Amino acid sequence: MDKLIIKGGRKLKGEVTVSGSKNASLPIFVATILAPGINQISNVPFLRDINTTIKVLDSLGACVEGNGNVVKIDSASIWNHEATYDLVKTMRASVLVLGPLLARFGRARVSLPGGCAIGARPINLHLKGLQALGAAIVLEHGYVEATCKRLKGTRINFDISTVGGTEHLMMAAATAKGETVLENAAREPEIVDLAQYLNRMGAQIEGAGTDTIHIQGVTELSAANYEVMPDRIEAGTFMIAAAMTGGDIRINGMKLEHLDALAFKMQDAGVEITSRDGVVRVKGPKRLRSVNIKTRPYPGFPTDMQAQFMAMMCVADGASVISENIFENRFMHVSELLRFGADIVIEGNTATVKGVRKLSGAPSMATDLRASASLILAGLAAEGTTEVTRIYHLDRGYESIEKKLAGLGADIVRVKE
Ligand code: EPU
Hints:
- There is one protein chain.
- This protein is α/β, with parallel strands linked by helices.
- It is about 30% helix and about 25% strand.
- It is built from 14 helices and 26 strands.
- The chain has helices at about 20-30, 50-60, 85-90, 100-105, 125-130, 165-175, 190-200, 230-245, 260-270, 305-315, 330-340, 370-380, 390-395, 400-405; strands at about 1-5, 15, 40, 65, 70-75, 80-85, 105-110, 135-140, 145, 155, 180-185, 205, 210-215, 225, 250, 270-275, 280-285, 290, 295, 315, 320-325, 345, 350-355, 365, 385-390, 410-415.
- A four-stranded mixed β-sheet has the order 24-25-1-26, with helices on one face. A four-stranded mixed β-sheet has the order 2-15-17-16. Strands 4-5-3-14 form a four-stranded mixed β-sheet, covered by helices on one side.
- It is elongated and about 65 Å long.
- The termini are close together.
């Protein structure tokens, strides 16, 4: 197993380029199931979760070939309609194959994902939506077994905003008979990216990015090429790295408009953020100010940036109140941040962070993907040496983060444990 060793205290300077989005790539890869033929997806990040998705498609019979950040997926050869427990437990998003398999073959058998470190994360709304589209669903031996004739368009109103649920039903409805309307749909940019790709394949989807999505079912989709959007969470993590180290960096390839909620809060905290010709410049102040955040579905403050923002608030002047409203157990980084000398108290879904003058580097352990990023950020700003172990969590979602940070002047290396 690898670990990271960081010697803190360097101000980050220079330029970094953001990779393609993990959370957009995953459903886009899955959507290729709907369109037999060769789909070429570019700007794909090199990540463990992408490898897992490739393994899932491979196990279904697709031919997948990668060349740099371009992946060709030939889904014509898919014959299997089962995704096993081994694959789904490694990555929950694998469950998204259920709808597309059902739409294409009229049957699918997919393992239920089970719990996850950050919360229970049920898929009840995915299943309820598929049933509303006409699927017969049985849960047996830990698997969802679904069958249907052709799915039939209908109105679906989500109880709560769900990113995966919205993506799943958008894919399933793309080739259903008639119109499907998704109400109270999630509005994340990754949903817009998926809708654009599906439309490129011949789907008729309108309203993605708003809370009402209209899908006119078409009889078939055909293979298409697509370039994945930039990773907004990776970009946001670099923005905080610059802010926390009093650095001054330029970020290429990001879309600042995807991160409005974060950018406004960072500006409130005293960070300078400017954008010109597609390049975003982020300059940290001498001393950050505390601000409060509440995580919300897009366009609210993203839960995927909560851990990193908390690391930043650990070294800000004053007290910051951070409420996590999306996942019930997404404060696991707190006990690790305490080891750096942070002052954080948790009560229910709220953490109160009192800024300290300096963090001090410490051995620490990653517990989930975004928690790992927060420990790296703490290490970059801390005095002395930090070790971050269990970074396989990090490798799920950040492409070469230590190389990119080293390119910005950070003293960070990956070593074998
Ligand atoms: N929920 C239900 N029932 C459902 C579906 C969701 O109760 O059927 C609940 C969840 O338990 C959660 C809330 O609804 O409390 C929101 O979950 P959502 O479905 O929106 O999350 P997701 O699709 O499972 C995606 C990202 C996550 C990101 C969330 C929220 C992917 C592959 N994952 O998860 O990304 O945190 O949306 O924005 O797109 C990450 O990248 O680190 C990550 C965890």
